[in-house]
Specification:
The structure holds two protein chains of two kinds.
Chain A (H helix, E strand, L loop, with lengths): L1 H16 L14 E5 L6 H17 L3 E5 L7 H9 L6 E5 L19 E8 L2 E6 L7 H10 L5 E3 L6 H13 L4 E3 L4 H9 L5 E5 H9 L3 E6 L5 E3 L3 E3 L2 H4 L13 E6 L4 H16 L1 H9 L3 E6 H22 L6 H4 L8
Parallel strand pairs in A: 1-2, 1-3, 6-7, 6-8
Antiparallel strand pairs in A: 3-12, 4-12, 4-13, 5-8, 5-9, 10-11
Helix pairs in contact in A: 2-9
Chain B lengths: L2 H16 L2 H19 L5 H11 L5 H18 L1 H7 L8 H12 L3 H34 L4 H19 L4 H14 L3 E2 L6 E2 L13 H19 L17 H6 L1 H16 L5 H15 L11 H25 L5 H12 L8 H4 L3 H28 L6 H18 L4 H19 L5 H23 L6 H4 L1 H15 L3 H13 L11
The chains are: A alpha/beta, B mainly alpha.
């Protein structure tokens, strides 16, 4: 209990102190707090805990991970960190989904307020249940074309990265699915196991155990590369049979953290250095390989570009779905085609 | 793996864990921390596991599991303390325990009640573990029978049953409170299409109402107001009765314990729901099958045994889909999944192939955790009863402070604090008008589940209600719901006794279990 209280108290202290103490060149002098905008135990949380504990030794301070979920698409955590001083003592742990926060009315900032570091993500895969009649993506798509709007697919919540992948598959193949929303990837996958839906699109990391255990039958990877899976064989790329998909895919996860763009160059340089060393370290490489994540390691300008693309894609897709509160044009978000 | 080698793995895991003093200390410490977490309003098992996850990063898997599972088991049990002593459930899971626990404490038998819940929690946890080891694949298969249709009915059932159980005068008042909770739960973005409902353009309402501030406000604030008004303490002075297990009472309750465990395991195994509902359903089942159901709510030991056995049995149940399919069975189990992934273990169907001993190791650790919980409980129960002897002028402000801290701690959002006070004042007046508060809270907890699943079910069936009558589990749940409703209609009671008499059952008062 003591440990937890200490952790709690130090977390709160660090947060409140960071508003009053200025960061100078001696950064970091005290513990850093990483505020993850999703709840503990999720993919973003796990990756943030891992990267920060690998970075900590290179910065010579502790990095405490706290969670501040809620609001719209992580807006609570982002607004909270954004209000604090740009001294580098508070980071925000985020994923690609937060880019939709502005158009959904969560907050009034664009993604360019952040200086992001992308750890990576897991590629999406489309799967059916073990005893499904579909044995390939072609089977599924031709059946969907024969019975439009009746074949049910799940892909996590409306407006999630997996939903965007599902929409991209629909657009690229001219197939009309009946999309059933679930609050997350796990319930979406369970829905295939219970037979409530016919197929599911989530990440390979989330599906790998079910695929290897024979509960799910993978049809295709939604990225350019095929994927070898121990004991299962090769999962082909959907692009092989449907080349038109390249116009819409891949849309990859971008999990990582960010510091405020206004932070000083020395803070950014120190974080980048520790980040690069942590990414290259054996622990992360090993973990990524065994959990089917693709490490990105992008930071700064390159990572900002990635987030700008995702922001545009998410915002305009959601606008097409009719589920935006604020028009992307009002926020100055360009269309994907204009990028 | 055959049974003999399972046993040897089990034994060697136990031995290796017990031989390390650090592990032992950690076990006792985590279990203690869990009990405190459960006992403090607002700090839940889910939050506890989440906070501890960071601290376990550097540990090896078994050590981390000792800490995490120790805390989990402790927190589910710890929620019963404030339920019994001051009628403020520490966690939603322990809300049903307050119904009979608090009256017992008022009679001066708080110590006895705590003793009973401690042992009931131990038995519940062990039963859950037993089923986890023996029947995991079958239970997991059963859990997969639950689709949106069944989830909706289950949520509806939970709200209805808490309504019928707690109403001090008219049953309909319980249902009104439940419906009020349901209505309030629709505030926020709707989970399927993300449309804002009743948010009045306030960003704080976008996420809907948080359960914890509602729970604390609804139970804590009225309790404090009442104590202030009557210038009295929250509980009566306690005679330090037996804390040690009353074997005879437990033996008399063997049917109750078995039934409650099975209910707990079953509800724990169904993905996404857990301890919160298990306590209620089990309490309801105990009351409805009892020969003296009128004594429930007045300090009936059977009531607390039912709810506490069930919520702890949930742990084993919730681990079944987690370890066999990678699907967490309850909110704290979802947190546990994250912790395991942090340690490079992805639970799922392949775990038996990739790491055949893992399930047995988890079992061994769970057994240790439940024993640690019991030992801690035996020491603590006697001490915590003493808090009631603290004079009200000191105790009341402390309780109020705890309520405030608890609402704020989750999410560190000041809005939750205002919400808690508002809910508290409303709950106080509802209470004064003899409306039960529990159904309201259960409505808030289960409302989103009912709403989301009914609408999703309609999307899946393309608008048809027929699947409700075509799916076996769904039919079963519908029947139970109809029975619960009918049992409250006086004409039905008369009809039933006539039918039973005609069939040759002389004693109509005794129903079969």
């Amino acid at each position: 209990m003591k440990k937890i209280v200490t952790a709690l108290v130090s977390g709160v202290l660090a947060v409140s102190l960071s508003t009053s103490v200025m960061a100078k060149d001696r950064y970091p002098e005290r513990d850093i707090t990483n505020v993850v905008v999703w709840s503990a135990g999720g993919g973003t949380d796990v990756i943030n805990r891992m990267i920060t504990s690998e970075m900590a030794p290179f910065l010579d301070v502790n990095i405490n991970v706290t969670n501040r979920p809620g609001g719209v698409a992580g807006s609570l955590g982002m607004s909270y960190v954004h209000k604090l001083k740009a001294d580098g003592y508070t980071l925000v742990g985020l994923s690609e989904s937060v880019v939709a926060s502005a158009v959904q009315g969560g907050w009034d900032q664009r993604m360019d307020v952040w200086y992001p570091f992308i750890v990576g993500g897991s590629p999406d895969v489309i799967s059916v249940s073990e005893n499904s009649k579909y044995n390939s993506l072609e089977d599924l798509i031709s059946d969907v074309k024969a019975h439009p709007k009746t074949i049910k697919g799940s892909a996590g919540g409306a407006g999630s990265i997996h939903h965007l992948n599902l929409l991209a598959v629909a657009n690229g193949t001219n197939a009309e699915f009946n999309y059933i929303p679930y609050p997350g990837s796990a319930p979406a996958q369970t829905a295939v196991l219970t037979g409530e839906v016919d197929f599911v699109i989530t990440s390979l990391a989330e599906q790998q155990q079910l695929i290897k255990g024979g509960k799910l039958k993978p049809l295709a990877m939604l990225v350019e590369q095929s994927q070898e899976l121990d004991g299962v064989g090769v999962i082909p790329s959907a692009f092989d049979k449907f080349p038109s998909l390249t116009k819409h895919l891949p849309i990859m996860q971008a999990i990582g953290f960010a510091v405020k763009q206004e932070a000083s160059d020395s803070v950014k340089a120190k974080l980048t250095d520790a980040f690069n060393k942590a990414i290259a370290g054996p622990k992360l490489q090993e973990w990524a390989k065994s959990n089917y994540y693709v490490l990105s390691g992008l930071s700064g300008e390159a990572a900002s570009q990635e987030f700008a693309f995702l922001e545009s894609l998410f915002s305009w897709t959601l606008k097409d779905l009719g589920s935006v509160k604020v028009d992307p044009t009002a926020l100055g978000i360009p269309k994907p085609s204009e990028l | 793996m055959d049974i003999l080698s399972s046993f040897s793995v089990f034994g060697s895991t136990l031995l290796s864990l017990l031989s390390s003093p650090t592990n032992l200390l950690l076990l006792i410490g985590a279990s203690f921390a869990g009990i405190i977490f459960g006992a403090l309003p607002g700090l839940t098992a889910t939050l506890g596991v989440a906070l501890l996850t960071t601290l376990t990063y550097g540990m090896d898997v078994n050590t981390a599991l000792i800490a995490l599972l120790g805390l989990y088991v402790g927190a589910i049990y710890g929620g019963s303390y404030p339920s019994i002593l001051i009628n403020i459930p520490g966690t939603a899971a322990a809300a049903a325990t307050a119904l009979d626990g608090y009256p017992l404490a008022l009679k001066g038998q708080g110590g006895r009640a705590l003793g009973l819940t401690t042992t009931a929690s131990l038995i519940g946890t062990l039963m859950g573990i037993l089923v986890l080891v023996v029947a995991a694949p079958w239970v997991a298969k059963m859990a997969l029978q639950f689709t949106s249709f069944e989830f909706f009915l289950l949520a509806l059932f939970g709200i209805l049953i808490s309504g019928t159980l707690t109403s001090p005068d008219l049953v309909i008042k319980g249902w009104i409170a439940g419906l009020l909770g349901l209505a309030v739960s629709t505030i926020g973005r709707d989970p399927l299409q993300f449309f804002p409902r009743f948010t009045f353009d306030m960003p704080d309402l976008d996420q809907g109402l948080e359960v914890v501030p509602v729970l604390i406000g609804a139970f804590g604030i009225p309790q404090v107001i009442r104590a202030l008004r009557n210038k009295e303490s929250l509980g009566a002075m306690q005679e330090f009765g037996r804390i040690l297990p009353e074997w005879s009472t437990l033996f008399k309750n063997r049917k109750n314990i078995t039934r409650s465990s099975m209910i707990g395991i079953g509800i724990g195994a169904v993905p996404g729901i857990g301890e919160d509902i298990a306590g209620w359903v089990s309490y309801g089942a105990a009351k409805n099958t009892s020969t003296h159901s009128e004594t429930f709510g007045t300090g009936e030991p059977e009531g607390i045994i039912a709810s506490e056995t069930a919520n702890n049995a949930c742990i084993g149940g919730a681990l079944i889909p987690l370890l066999t399919l990678g699907i967490p069975g309850s909110p704290p189990a979802a947190m546990l999944l994250g912790a395991l992934m942090l340690h490079g273990i992805t639970p799922g169907p392949m775990i038996v192939v990739e790491d055949p001993d893992f399930l047995i190791e988890v079992t061994a650790i769970l057994v240790l955790c439940s024993i640690a919980m019991w030992i801690n409980g035996m020491f603590l129960a006697k001490q915590v009863v003493k808090v009631l002897s603290i004079p009200a002028p000191i105790f009341l402000p402390v309780v109020t402070l705890m309520c405030i801290l608890g609402s704020y701690a989750l999410g560190l959002n000041i809005f939750n604090l205002y919400m808690m006070v508002l809910v508290g004042v409303i709950a106080y007046f509802l209470g004064e008008m003899q409306y039960p508060i529990s159904p309201l809270v259960i409505g808030v907890i289960l409302g989103p589940m009912a709403d989301e699943n009914l609408r999703r079910a309609m999307m899946v069936s393309e608008g048809s209600l027929m699947p409700f009558l075509e799916r076996p589990v769904s039919i079963l749940l519908l029947l139970v719901i109809v029975l619960v409703l009918l049992s409250k209609v006086p004409q039905y009671q008369t009809l039933k006794s006539i039918i039973l008499k005609k069939l040759g059952f002389g004693r109509t008062s005794k129903k079969g279990a």
